[in-house]
Design brief:
heterotrimer; A mainly alpha (225); B mainly alpha (644); C alpha+beta (415); A: 225 residues; Four Helix Bundle (Hemerythrin (Met), subunit A); two-stranded antiparallel sheet; B: Cytochrome C Oxidase, Chain A; two-stranded antiparallel ribbon; two-stranded parallel ribbon
């Protein structure tokens, strides 16, 4: 438990018994909620207000050229990327659990799966890779949108869409770097139960970014124009 | 009075070899950072005041040509921006830094290096946004930066680039500091210091941190949109793309109204310390004071659109926001009465701090009443964007925040420097300031109701405004000597003030139980807090007899750390250094400074983009990014404390 | 004391010394706002007096005296605290109820018989359209006394705010939106008011002013019908040499006599209209600007006096002016960026209420508008003049003082 880990250091009395960083990350996440709330609200306020296409859910014909721009959002692809990100949260849970339980003897008759569950490296790798996979989906989505004529300058939809999802992508990127650094520590000296807090902080952040994506996916992609 | 000159040898010996500048650049001591904040923000306060003097000089007479329209527009924009972001907020931050750990019985803030970072990025951001005024290329779109005027189409120059980037930089500072102080208050209170025993300043600061945490991300996003529009051609505020300019206004005021409480609540907290101490009575209605602060903060998020009654939101929105705004009068009124009844029946000692605190009550009432008159939308439509509003919020921000901060400075100066400020000069400062502020701001009510708009660099003769403008200008030029007296007193008293002991005012809270100035570790032994007024429990038990006393938290705390580090409530007399006592202290480090510098350089690069100067732009952006990422890595991989 | 001063000054506010006072009972809108204000001041004064009196009493009575007793240590009183929570709440009810009533009344749809006026804000002047009469004018509004006026507010660029303090509360002009403001000037009589922009809109925000006139229904009709008519040039014979100031309405001559003589002048026959403007002798001094002319712009009085309207017409019709300005009746002048100048001679002010409309000011304005009004979008036109925005000196194509005087004479003839 993290509290006993603190006590081992001897001099950090805290009021709640929790580590300062744990409190701070919650404060940070509270702040991030308002950040994404502002971004998502802006997207919703500007929904349907763009003067020119392409549009998210409906095709648009350019009156000057007669060119038809199909509805831009690709729900199946994004559903896949959403699934990938959700799975990364699962991997994150397993990674944290592996770190917390490091050193505990396996029950008799433990199989390969039980063994795999104890590998923090495996699950951190999985989280990182799934996160990177999500980013790859996003990179694909962004490039295909640009090819279809939607840029960040094109219309209100383009500006608010790319900024919102771009901010989320930047958060995922930061998370992958964070997890990568934990992985580096794991390779260097092995993450111990006393490091559980460090992993826990990254996990909280990661789950938060994940939850935000659920909100974005629902509000942007699933609710039609 | 027998004064005890608590010799501050320990602070000197902590950094013996380093130069003054180096010790500042590398400090992680919340007290040093607090005084750095104090001096920096006083500097910006004077600068903002000089900007105001130029404004008033121009407006002294009709059709005046002291300043050009451009210069005036830059000055009024920078006066607002400076006073809000570079003077009042960081003056409050100075007190957060200095006082919160002392008031809750902690040895430092939760994240000392992050604290240093907050200061440095504030200073560099302040320089970034202020420097252009010396070349007349300062921001000129108002402190509120309404779109589309603030966009590239209507503000093509670099002026608003400085504003949008500068505010982003300053936002980083405020957010980092707010996470730090929120964590500190939640998690670093001495045993027995439960929430309902926290000093009222810490309480109000606590509420303020949540306001910052929840409101600053909103302005960050509003600014991101503006930044993207200006630099990358997005369409958020692009009228030709069908954008709605009210998006900016809503985002800005969802931040902007809580910001008003961010400015005022710390000052409320400060006078809530000054009034009981100088009345020899506990704060009247402590729980209600705490709850009303929370309520003000909470309601503060639900009233933003009262800044927008003229934009045509429709009768329903006008009604809702009008009524919620009126509601805020209730908790504010409660505070006023509780302060007065704190003094009622007391034994009032008129120190300079006390005079300012009492003046805050008197002046804030005026700002509150005029505030009600524009909570009523039909009435507000005759007031908004006129000098009446200027009068109103100067009674709130000068008559409230600044008077409260002056009270705080006179009151806490002895704690910071071990010497009291000169009371005679303080009295002169007070009366001159009090007369001058009323002479400056009261006539503005009349100018506004007689039809004078805000933000005009000139006005015609014969409109009935000459007298009031002349009075305001006279008042403003009287505020200058008042402030000079204060500045002189401040710097003179640091060296030549009357030396004082740990508790010159006979105050009741923890910060007064330790020497003045406090040793680097603050508390040699963490005290066990027994009530809201732990020091009076020791020295004047009769004053706190009615207040519940318990020993909660003691056992848990000692279980965590061992009793050797804690002691029952006591007056600290320890004079040994942290090293001698074996108290681990955060080591000095320059890394936060370079992280801050790197971020500011990164933002500066953007300035060159609109001019097509890609080489310096990318050099600064990549160089800055490399700097802050590198130093951040070094920071995160270095332990906080030296292992000795 | 503060209250006494307040009351004193408020009493003075209705007087003539304060022409832009918001407390004048001129319209339904303003009476409602003043009524709310009075209620709030009533309660506000009571609260102010009570609070400050208790405060003063407390600090005098309980000041520390040598040897004084140790105070009694109350730490709260629930009953008192409930009292001063509920008392303000009760007062707020007395303010909130009429507030809500007034909100819904003033923001209801305008009465059907209202005069429609479209307001379009520009950096830094006002365009006014009267759709029912089919004309556009600038910087001066006429309203019939006693009839509701409904303003539809839009902006061509940044945000502005439309305010005539003596008549009604303001309303913002928001890009991509139309706002409405209506009121009934039923207690003004024949009167003139100042209006201003109240939302900061850039360099010359302070110089974005306008004038509003309430006149009798008949006079309004005369004015509007004439404004709707095309400009006639040259004007009737005996007005050609008229002084550069606007002549009193009593001297007006029926336009039926006007025979268009110039080659390019319109030949359209139109219904006779009479030029009419608010009687000059009744214009209060605060409506006439006193802005000084900047020292950097000068043009000799003699040169201005020598201006010839006929030459001016020709010069104007070939100059840069026509790129931005419209004069209905002058087919070469079809610009839409600047104020409509069809009847510019009938206005009291130029440059959005910044200068009086006379030959001297108009000539200076044409010579170097940007030196006269910071940030003005109207270019510096005088030859050899310095354009402070482009930072160049106007050379080829610039207007000579003679040409400027001629154009001035032409424009002022457009009654």
């Amino acid at each position: 438990m993290s509290a006993s880990a603190d006590a081992a250091h001897g001099h950090h009395y805290t009021t709640t018994g929790l580590d300062n960083r744990k409190i701070a990350i919650w404060a940070f996440i509270g702040s991030e909620c308002m950040l994404f709330a502002s971004l998502i609200s802006t997207y919703l306020i500007y929904k349907g207000k763009s003067l020119v296409g392409p549009f998210p859910h409906t095709p648009w014909t350019d009156p000057s050229s007669g060119k038809v721009f199909p509805a831009i959002l690709n729900i199946p692809v994004t559903s896949a990327s959403t699934f990938v990100l959700l799975m990364s949260s699962l991997a994150m849970v397993l990674a944290l659990s592996a770190v917390e339980n490091r050193g505990k003897p396996l029950p008799p008759g433990a199989g390969a799966w039980d063994k795999a569950l104890t590998s923090s490296k495996l699950w951190l790798w999985m989280t990182c890779l799934l996160g990177a996979g999500f980013l790859a989906f996003q990179a694909y989505e962004f490039t295909s949108f640009v090819h279809e004529g939607l840029t960040i300058r094109r219309n209100l939809f383009g500006s608010s869409f790319f900024t919102l999802t771009g901010f989320h992508g930047a958060h995922v990127t930061a998370g992958v770097i964070w997890l990568g650094s934990l992985l580096a520590i794991d390779y260097k000296r092995g993450l111990q139960p006393s490091d559980a807090l460090a992993v826990d902080l990254a996990a909280l952040y990661w789950h938060f970014v994940d939850v935000v994506w659920i909100a974005i996916f629902t509000l942007l992609y699933l609710i039609p124009g | 009075m027998a004064t005890v000159a608590a010799s501050p040898t320990y602070t000197a010996s902590a950094t013996p070899q380093r130069s003054r500048l180096m010790s500042w650049l590398t400090t992680t001591d919340h007290k040093v950072i607090g005084t750095l904040y104090l001096h920096t923000s006083l500097f910006f306060f004077v600068l903002g005041g000089l900007e105001a003097l130029l404004i008033r000089w121009q407006l002294m007479r009709p059709n005046s040509v002291v300043l050009t329209a451009d210069q005036y527009n830059q000055l009024f924009t920078m006066h607002g921006t400076t006073m809000v972001f570079l003077a009042i907020m960081p003056l409050s931050a100075a007190f957060f830094n200095y006082l919160i750990p002392l008031q809750i019985g902690a040895r430092d803030v939760a994240f000392p290096r992050l604290n240093a970072f907050s200061y440095w990025i504030f200073l560099l951001g302040g320089v970034f946004i202020t420097l252009p005024i010396f070349f007349w290329v300062a921001p000129d779109g108002g402190w509120f930066g309404y779109a589309p005027l603030s966009g590239r189409t209507y503000s093509p120059g670099p002026n608003m680039d400085f504003w949008v980037l500068g505010l982003q930089i300053l936002g980083i500072s405020s957010l980092a500091a707010s996470f730090n102080f929120a964590t500190t208050i939640i998690n670093m209170r001495a045993p027995g210091m439960n929430l309902m025993r926290m000093p009222m300043f810490t309480w109000m600061s606590f509420v303020t941190q949540f306001l910052i945490i929840l409101s600053f991300p909103v302005i960050t996003i509003a600014l991101v949109f503006l930044q993207f529009d200006r630099f990358f051609g997005t369409t958020f505020y692009q009228i030709s793309a069908g954008a709605d300019p009210l998006l900016w206004q809503h985002l800005f005021w969802i931040f902007g109204h809580p910001e008003v409480y961010i400015l005022i609540l710390p000052a409320f907290g400060l006078v809530s310390e000054v009034l009981p101490t100088n009345s020899r009575k506990p704060l009247f209605g402590y729980p209600v004071m705490a709850y009303s602060g929370i309520l003000i903060g909470f309601l503060g998020f639900g009233v933003w659109a009262h800044h927008m009654f003229a934009v045509g939101m429709g009768p329903i929105a006008d009604t809702v926001f009008g009524l919620t705004t009126m509601l805020i009068a209730i908790p504010t009124g409660v505070k006023i009465f509780n302060w007065i009844f704190t003094m009622w029946g007391g034994s009032i000692r008129f120190t300079a701090a006390m005079k300012f605190a009492i003046a805050l009550i008197a002046m804030f009432v005026i700002g509150g009443i005029s505030g009600i008159t524009h909570a009523s939308p039909p009435s507000d439509l005759q007031q908004t964007d006129t000098y009446y509003i200027v009068a109103h919020f100067h009674y709130v921000l000068f008559g409230g925040a600044i008077l409260g901060i002056f009270a705080g400075i006179y009151h806490y100066f002895p704690k910071m420097y071990g010497r009291t400020m000169n009371e005679t000069l303080g009295t002169w400062h007070f009366w001159l300031n009090f007369i001058a502020m009323n002479l400056t701001f009261f006539p503005m009510h009349f100018a506004g109701m007689l039809g004078m708009p805000r933000r005009i660099y000139t006005y015609d003769a014969g409109q009935g405004w000459e007298l009031f403008n002349m009075m305001s200008t006279m008042g403003a030029f009287l505020l200058a000597p008042a402030t000079l007296i204060f500045i002189y007193n401040f710097f003179r008293s640091k060296k030549h003030g009357e030396p004082c002991g740990p508790n010159p005012w006979d105050a009741p809270t923890l910060e007064w139980s330790i020497p003045s100035p406090p040793p680097e570790y603050n508390f040699a032994k963490i005290p066990m807090v027994t009530s809201r007024y732990p020091l009076w429990d020791l020295t004047h038990p009769e004053r706190t007899a009615e207040i519940p006393h318990t020993q909660t938290g003691w056992t848990e705390a000692t279980q965590q750390t061992g009793e050797h580090d804690m002691a029952p409530m006591h007056i600290e007399t320890e004079t040994r250094t942290a090293k001698e006592l074996g108290i681990p202290m955060p080591s000095s480090t320059i890394k936060p400074f370079f992280v801050a510098l790197g971020i500011v350089l990164m933002f500066s690069g953007l300035l060159f983009l609109p001019k097509g100067m890609k080489v310096p732009a990318f050099a600064l952006m990549f160089g800055g990014t490399a700097m802050w990422v590198g130093y951040l890595y070094a920071w995160l991989t270095t332990p906080l404390e030296d292992h000795h | 004391m503060v209250i006494a001063v307040t009351l004193l000054v408020l009493a003075a506010c209705s007087g003539g010394d304060y022409p832009n006072s918001t407390f004048l009972p001129t319209t339904d809108n303003n009476r409602d706002a003043t009524d709310l204000w009075n209620r709030m001041m009533f309660w506000g004064t009571i609260v102010f007096v009570i609070v400050e009196a208790i405060l003063l009493y407390t600090i005098i009575k309980y000041r520390r005296r040598p040897g004084g007793p140790e105070p009694e240590h109350v730490h709260g009183n629930t009953l008192m605290e409930i009292t001063w929570t509920l008392a303000p709440a009760l007062i707020l009810v007395f303010i909130a109820v009429p507030t809500v009533r007034t909100i819904f009344r003033s923001q209801a749809a305008a009465p059907a018989n209202a005069v429609q006026i479209e307001v379009i804000g520009h950096q830094w002047w006002w365009e006014f359209r009267y759709p029912e009469y089919g004309f556009t004018t600038a910087n001066e509004i006429y309203m019939p006394h006693g009839r509701p006026v409904n303003f539809a507010l839009r902006t061509a660029d940044v945000l502005h705010s439309f305010w005539i303090p003596a008549l009604a509360g303001k309303r913002d002009l928001i890009s991509n939106r139309t706002n409405y403001l209506w009121f009934t000037p039923d207690s003004t009589g024949e009167a003139a008011f100042n209006g201003s922009c109240n939302e900061y809109c850039g360099a010359s925000h302070a110089n974005m002013k306008f004038r509003a006139f309430t006149v009798s229904a008949e006079d309004f009709d005369t004015w509007a019908r004439h404004q709707a008519a095309n400009a006639i040039f040259p004007p009737p014979v005996d007005t050609a040499a008229a002084p550069a100031t606007v002549r009193p309405a009593s001297n007006a001559i029926g336009m039926a006599q006007a025979v268009p003589a110039a080659q390019a002048a319109p030949t359209t026959v139109q219904a006779p209209t009479t030029p009419w403007q608010f009687p000059r002798e009744k214009v209060p001094p605060h409506v006439l600007p006193q802005t000084p002319i900047p020292a950097s712009v000068s043009i000799a009085d003699a040169a201005i006096a020598a201006g010839d309207a006929q030459r001016g017409f020709t010069t104007y019709s070939r100059s840069a002016c026509i790129g931005c300005h419209k004069i209905r009746g002058n087919p070469s002048s079809m610009g839409i960026l600047g104020p409509d100048l069809t009847h510019v001679g009938s206005r009291f002010t130029i440059a959005s209420g910044l200068f009086p409309n006379d030959a001297k000011h108009l000539a200076h304005w044409i010579k170097n508008a940007r030196a006269m009004k910071p940030g003005s979008l109207m270019q510096t036109l005088g030859k050899g003049e310095h354009d402070p925005i482009m930072n160049i000196t106007v050379q080829a194509g610039g207007l000579t003082d003679e040409q400027i005087a001629d154009i001035t004479a032409y424009l002022l003839s457009l009654k």
